Amino acid sequence: MSTYTSQTAPVDVARIAAAALNAGDLDRFAELVHEDVAFDILPFGERHGRLAARGFFAELRGALPDFDMTVEAVTGDARCAAVAWRITGTFNGERFQGFEPNGRAFDIRGIDFMDIDSGRVRHDRIAFDGAEWARQLGLLPPRGSAAESAAQAVFNLRTRIARRWRERRHAAGKRTD
């Protein structure tokens, strides 16, 4: 059973949880979250419950065998903690979120906003740049590339066509013959 109590400061809970994730000690990590914890992981959606949260991080660590999490800053008060972090690794392990590993390196920065209750995480909002994640995975073209310019051009063309179509439908609806 856990040695963490309601007396454990939220910033300490956050640091211990980050250290457990970095070490791959998911049992220790699970001790630090409430049974009914809510993890809101942008852009991946919400996970509810200790097992779901542990499962997400097991999947992430399985996908990035060389997973490394660096805590860049921690701050908080009597109820909350915020952790700025950086995760690096290579997507050459197992599938992640339905995607096959492709050997690409990752370097993602993000932040967790944790609500701590009785020495355990009750709610965690995890935010990072999902578009950058997609670029590093290869789902989106690199910034400034010809492929990105082409994708923008197609998007803008589609938007203009849709706008004209709506304007024509609106104008046709106002006609009184």
Task: Give a written overview of the molecule.
By secondary structure, this protein is α+β, with helices and mostly antiparallel strands. The chain contains five helices and six strands. The protein has helices at 10-23, 26-31, 50-63, 130-137, 146-174; strands spanning 33-41, 45-48, 68-76, 80-90, 105-117, 120-128. The protein has a six-stranded mixed sheet. The model has no long low-confidence stretch (mean pLDDT 93).
Q: Which structural class do you get from the secondary structure elements?
A: alpha+beta
Largest sheet: 6 strands, mixed
Gross geometry: globular
Oligomer: single chain
Distance between the termini: 79 Å
Low-confidence stretches: none
Q: Into which percentage range does the β-strand content fall?
A: 25-35%
Brief digest:
This protein has 177 residues and is of the alpha+beta class. 40% of the residues lie in helices and 31% in strands. The chain has helices at 10-23, 26-31, 50-63, 130-137, 146-174; strands spanning 33-41, 45-48, 68-76, 80-90, 105-117, 120-128.
How are the SSEs ordered, and which strands pair?
Layout: H1 10-23, H2 26-31, E1 33-41, E2 45-48, H3 50-63, E3 68-76, E4 80-90, E5 105-117, E6 120-128, H4 130-137, H5 146-174
Parallel strand pairs: 1-6
Antiparallel strand pairs: 1-2, 3-4, 4-5, 5-6
